């Protein structure tokens, strides 16, 4: 059963559509990649699910169903609580995602205590346990530290621990490694994968790195201009991409076995084809 | 740098500042025209009388000599004698200081409450008419200085709709059983809320006049700073955890957004204290500022000198408190 279902989601800024009839679903325990070039709307989908869209962005139509709850139908306050209890975010930049004026511990435990009603002691034990799980030495000390006392890699581990703290059934990770050192990136990626497998959490993984997709994901959604071009299994995608843009994207990605292989940028003809598709779509839906 | 070292350094710079202020004021008030002694004596006093009185107050000596004598006294806790009242400057000034401290603190508290409430409301309702109204109100409040607000308040609540006192510090009919001049604080400690209410109804108008411009500055700066903070990733992350917007604003954004505002409040608070001079006069409030104006009118040189030094001391103390609070609130400075 799918834990997250997005049906025909349309969103726009002013009159400009930024999500066009987006439909996708994430099955329980599945890792789904969300790929596309910069500006394709990957982050917007994550933000729509988590209820953190910028104020300029307006959801026009469509449904977002999280664990059976139609989010759009809920009052804003209730929607937040439902999302907080069932889903979590692993943010992109660990340097800015922790509150600089609060100790690390409470930032991991606050959801458990305030939203889910755990006792402080239980939440504290849980946090220590999780920090241990993400290989942070001396969790008790780290929990008393302020974010600026810790390295970027440490902070991302803390944010991962925090995301798993309430055992959410869905985690959205929005390019969780791009802000990190290359050496740390691999460790963090492996950690997310391990944690996901161990906890059986569904994961929506936003990235523009197909190499990462091949290592982490089981299924994949390809996005361009806020429109879903392809929705497929990962093996299928790498064997036989189902859209010309996907094929071009694949050709444009250096094989991680051979990083020096020459890059073929996505050909203009392919882009023009996709843009024609988008135009046709907009005409059909009354946006000129 | 440790806290102790920081405080010691501050004390040293404070001493230097105070010395500089003392020198400047001492010389300036002695070169401006106006003869205190002539003003004290009845008409028809002889030159001889004047000379004798001058000698009594040491005014026959050269200015540098007078300064050294004065400085020597100060180092022994003697700030001289007021020419008009013939009482020691120190006890005069200290007797009025509590009134001004209470007025300033009340104004500061009012400014922080109003300014904070406006900033939080404006942030909560950002992008709506409410925010626009707050912005316009701030603009108006800022473009009118405190003493004009004083006049407006006197007209509104003293004349048109007289619900507050607009003159004095306390009703003359009240018997004061107090042992300090911190009437407001002491009335609370002694649980004399009847007196407290009378004091507040006297202080409210002048402190509000002082508070309005500061409240507008606080509202504007804090709202701006909150607005920037609200876009930061940790605020967004708190939203995804299930917190409602009020919690996100007050618990996640506010503690970080107040830091820049706090420094500014420190600077502005010293302006506010400077504003008490005219406001106290306007509302016949018996504080230090009112005394300062009398002292200047009467050319009471030792008293002017004492009051100015005290004001300078207050300013540096305020700055010190602001710095320490800032350090205490900002974890990055705490161990740094
Ligand atoms: N705050 C905002 N207000 C209005 N439009 C925005 C805002 N943020 C992003 N957009 C627009 O929404 C579209 C989708 O942006 P989004 O951030 O989802 O892209 P993305 O696929 O995540 O790209 P990237 O790989 O660069 O993160 C873009 O065209 C962008 O210009
Ligand atoms: Mg993005």
TrEMBL record, chain A:
InterPro entries according to UniProt = AAA+_ATPase (IPR003593), ABC_Ni/Peptide_Import (IPR050388), ABC_transporter-like_ATP-bd (IPR003439), ABC_transporter-like_CS (IPR017871), P-loop_NTPase (IPR027417)
Q: Kindly give the CDD domains that the UniProt entry links to this protein.
A: ABC_NikE_OppD_transporters
Task: Note whether Nucleotide-binding occurs among the keywords.
Answer: yes
Keyword Cell cycle assigned: no
Could you tell me which residue ranges the ABC transporter domain spans? 4-250
Write down the membrane topology.
Answer: Peripheral membrane protein
* Keywords tagged on the record: ATP-binding, Cell inner membrane, Cell membrane, Membrane, Nucleotide-binding, Translocase, Transport
Q: Which Pfam families match?
A: ABC_tran (PF00005)
Q: Which domain of life is it from?
A: Bacteria
What subcellular compartments does it reside in?
Answer: Cell inner membrane
Q: Name one GO molecular function term.
A: ATP binding
Give the family per the record: Belongs to the ABC transporter superfamily.
Protein name from the UniProt record: ABC transporter ATP-binding protein
Q: Which organism is it from?
A: Pseudodonghicola flavimaris
Automatic annotation (TrEMBL), chain B:
For this protein, the parts annotated as crossing the membrane are 7-32, 99-120, 140-164, 199-222, 257-283, 303-329
Q: What membrane topology does this protein have?
A: Multi-pass membrane protein
Domain ABC transmembrane type-1 intervals:
97-326
- Gene3D superfamilies membership: MetI-like
Which keywords does this Swiss-Prot/TrEMBL entry list? Answer: Cell membrane, Membrane, Transmembrane, Transmembrane helix, Transport
Q: Chief localization class?
A: membrane
List the SUPFAM superfamilies: MetI-like
Where does this protein reside within or beyond the cell? Cell membrane
Q: Which PROSITE patterns match?
A: ABC_TM1
> Into which family does the record put it?
Belongs to the binding-protein-dependent transport system permease family.
UniProt-recorded name of the protein:
ABC transporter permease
Q: Which organism is it from?
A: Pseudodonghicola flavimaris
């Amino acid at each position: 059963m799918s834990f997250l279902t997005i049906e025909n989601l349309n969103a726009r800024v002013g009159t400009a559509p930024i999500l066009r009839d987006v439909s996708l679903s994430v099955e329980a325990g599945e890792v789904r990649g969300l790929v596309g070039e910069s500006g394709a709307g990957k982050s917007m989908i994550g933000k729509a699910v988590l209820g953190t869209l910028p104020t300029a962005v307006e959801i026009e139509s469509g449904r977002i169903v999280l664990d059976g709850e139609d989010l759009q139908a809920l009052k804003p306050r209730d929607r937040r609580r439902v999302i907080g209890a069932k889903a979590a975010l692993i943010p992109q930049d660990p340097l800015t995602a922790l509150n600089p004026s609060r100790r690390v511990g409470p930032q991991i435990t606050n959801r458990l205590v305030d939203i889910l009603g755990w006792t402080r002691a239980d939440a504290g034990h849980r946090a220590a346990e999780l920090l241990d799980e993400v290989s942070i030495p001396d969790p008790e000390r780290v929990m008393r530290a302020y974010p600026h006392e810790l390295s970027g890699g440490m902070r991302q581990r803390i944010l991962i621990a925090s995301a798993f703290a309430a055992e959410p059934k869905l985690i959205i990770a929005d390019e969780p490694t791009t802000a990190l050192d290359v050496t740390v990136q691999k460790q963090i990626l492996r950690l997310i994968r391990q944690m996901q497998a161990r906890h059986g959490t569904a994961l929506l993984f936003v990235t523009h790195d197909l190499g990462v997709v091949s290592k982490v994901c089981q299924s994949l959604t390809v996005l361009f201009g806020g429109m879903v071009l392809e929705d497929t299994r990962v093996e299928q995608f790498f064997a036989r991409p189902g859209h010309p843009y996907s094929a071009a994207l694949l050709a444009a990605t250096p094989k991680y076995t051979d990083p020096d292989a020459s890059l073929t940028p996505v050909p203009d003809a392919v882009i023009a084809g996709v843009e024609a598709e988008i135009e046709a779509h907009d005409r059909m839906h009354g946006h000129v | 740098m440790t806290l102790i070292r920081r405080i010691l350094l501050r004390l040293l710079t404070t001493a230097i500042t105070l010395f500089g202020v003392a020198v400047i004021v001492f010389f300036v008030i002695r070169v401006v025209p106006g003869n205190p002694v002539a003003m004290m004596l009845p008409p028809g006093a002889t030159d001889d009388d004047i000379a004798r009185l001058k000698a009594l107050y040491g005014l026959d000596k050269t200015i540098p000599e007078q300064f050294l004598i004065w400085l020597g006294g100060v180092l022994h806790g003697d700030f001289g004698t007021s020419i008009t009242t013939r009482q020691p400057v120190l006890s005069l000034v200290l007797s009025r200081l509590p009134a001004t401290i209470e007025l300033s603190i009340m104004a500061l508290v009012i400014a922080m409450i109003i300014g904070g409430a406006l900033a939080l409301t404006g942030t909560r309702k950002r992008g709506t008419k409410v925010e626009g109204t707050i912005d316009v109100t701030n603009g108006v409040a800022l473009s009118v200085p405190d003493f004009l607000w004083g006049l407006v308040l006197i007209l509104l609540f003293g004349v048109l709709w007289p619900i507050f006192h607009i003159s004095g510090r306390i009703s003359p009919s009240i018997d004061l059983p107090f042992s300090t001049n911190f009437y407001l604080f002491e009335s609370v400690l002694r649980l004399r809320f009847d007196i407290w209410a009378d004091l507040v109804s006297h202080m409210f108008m002048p402190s509000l006049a002082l508070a309005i411009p500061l409240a507008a500055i606080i509202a504007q700066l804090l709202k701006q700073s909150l607005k920037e903070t609200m876009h930061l990733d940790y605020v967004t992350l708190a939203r995804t955890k299930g917190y409602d917007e009020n919690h996100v604003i007050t618990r996640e954004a506010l503690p970080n957004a107040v830091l820049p505002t706090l420094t500014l409040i420190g600077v502005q608070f010293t302006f506010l204290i400077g504003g008490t001079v005219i406001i106290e006069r306007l509302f016949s409030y018996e504080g230090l500022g009112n005394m300062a104006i009398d002292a200047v009118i009467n050319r009471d040189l030792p008293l002017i000198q004492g009051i100015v030094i005290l004001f300078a001391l207050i300013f540096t103390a305020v700055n010190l408190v602001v710095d320490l609070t800032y350090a205490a609130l900002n974890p990055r400075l705490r161990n740094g």
